[in-house]
Write a structure and sequence with these properties.
Strand content: 15-25%
Largest sheet: 5 strands, antiparallel
Helix content: 25-40%
Structural class: alpha+beta
CATH architecture: 4-Layer Sandwich
Number of strands: 14
Number of domains: 1
Shape: globular
Radius of gyration: 20 Å
Strand order of the largest sheet: 12-2-3-13-14
Length: 281
């Protein structure tokens, strides 16, 4: 697959041979060492210390789905980065939120974006949301060797299903096992606390504005109990990344929008530090 050094202007034969519409299959056949899961790691003693992304949350509403993440990356007991980005568009109608080893996770997202783009160019059609979820599952499974050495990647995938006309959420484990979540989901170190918050506040009839407020509330509660999750940082103007995927496509809320939501939540927390109360019945 090497470029022609004689400058004939011709592509290598690998690019001209008919094959699978999967870019991962193409790399596996012609240059497998470029795939993250095919790389050989040197022998190590104990767990490899690397920056980790933490909490990702998602919630559906009648017009689509909201996917959000905090901005903190940790390395052991140290804050490795305060403003890391953990939520990325996969294509026009889907997005991925990353938790786990940050470097590998970002690389996996970029490969996933390329995989979807390659399929669309080869087939002339967009892969279904179910198909996208399956492709991501395969990528996570290929990283199992590194996951066994402590370099796991566990994303949350969400998108708008054009066939069903609704937002959907998919969660994964380190082996690539895929589960579709109903209503809301969370992954990462603060996921237990975020899920608990959403469990009490989620309703099936939420508006888009209420759904975006819900996920920021959940991230705030996660940061309140999990040291690896970063809450809104007003002094540094660092706020959660909040994205909305609907029939109109992927949209990331501007900093002005997320800061307004975060500041309103902070103001309410001065009166109710533990957050809004759900009805007993």
């Amino acid at each position: 697959m090497e470029a022609n050094t004689r400058s004939t202007g011709r592509l290598p034969a690998a690019f001209l041979t008919p094959g699978s519409s999967s870019f991962m299959d193409f790399l596996s056949e012609h240059q497998p060492e470029m795939l993250p899961g095919k790389r050989q790691l040197p022998p190590t003693q104990g767990v490899v210390e690397a920056p980790h992304g933490t909490t990702i949350v998602a919630a559906t509403f009648p017009g689509g789905v909201v996917l959000a993440g905090d901005r903190r990356a940790t390395m052991g007991n140290v804050i490795a980065q305060r403003d890391i980005e953990k939520v990325f568009p996969a294509d026009e109608y889907s997005a991925v939120g990353i938790a786990g080893t940050a470097g590998l996770a970002v690389e996996m997202v970029k490969l996933f974006q390329l995989e979807l783009e390659h399929f669309e160019k080869v087939e002339g059609a967009t892969l279904s949301l179910e198909g996208k979820a399956n492709r991501l599952s395969t990528m996570i499974r290929s990283n199992l060797g590194m996951a066994m050495q402590g370099l796991a990647v566990v994303p949350l995938f969400a998108g708008y299903d054009m066939d069903r006309g609704k937002g959907r959420i998919f969660s994964y484990d380190v082996t690539g096992g895929r589960s579709e979540e109903q209503g809301f989901a969370a992954t990462g170190s603060g996921s237990v606390f975020a899920r608990g918050a959403m469990k009490k506040l989620f309703r099936a009839d939420l508006t888009e504005e209420q759904a975006t407020t819900l996920v920021v509330q959940a991230l705030y509660d996660a940061a309140d109990d999990d040291s690896a999750t970063g809450g809104p940082d007003v002094a540094r103007r660092i706020y959660p990344i909040v994205t909305v995927i609907s029939e109109e496509g992927f949209r990331r809320l501007a900093e002005e929008e997320t800061s307004e939501i975060a500041r309103s939540i902070l103001a309410r927390r001065l009166e109710q530090p533990d957050g809004p109360r759900a009805a007993l019945l």
